[in-house]
Amino acid sequence: MLPARESTAALLLVLLVGDVVAVTRYRRDVDWRLIRGLLPGLLPGLVLGTWLLSVLSDTAMQRGLGVILLLLTGLQLAMRRRRAGSDAPVRPWPWPARLGVGTAAGTTTMVANAGGPVMALYLLGQAVEKKRFVGTNAWFFFLINLTKLPFSAGLGLLEPRLLLLALVLAPCVLVGAALGITLIKRIRQQAFELAVLGAAALSAVVLLVT
To answer: Per the structure, how many domains does the chain have?
Structure first.
């Protein structure tokens, strides 16, 4: 319905509504250690994403994000296959990997609010339990989205009509949040992980073909 740049700003405002619900509901289910490991790469990623928004076309941004997400999904599947049947504990990722994930999350979320799959694949790689997954993810993106507001304002993207659009869509976000809270209680861990991987792969395909 909107060009890529304007849709980024509109979705940012809508996402913040969901973020508030998520961090309130899962305020105790957060692993700050995992979040701190990504912070060094986050600001460079946001700056890089802001620059890409100013120079790349909508199509180029979509295709680039699709390729990145597809590669990360393939990497995560390979890692899961390698760990299958192994009783070895999951080791924390080394700092270069965390730096790369933080930068990728900052860049993709700034360009198209597409940092969710990047963060999801990182948390799956750390074998995070589903409630801790949701809580850590919620707090990470709540802080990111607040940080993104001045960047979006600096690009002139936060127009009054987008604020109105976010207000109209807010009730839908609340309904979705209620459904998500119900689902997370019922879904098994393995099914949850497969659903996350499937959603990441689907996001990549949509970005590549639309």
So the answer is: 1
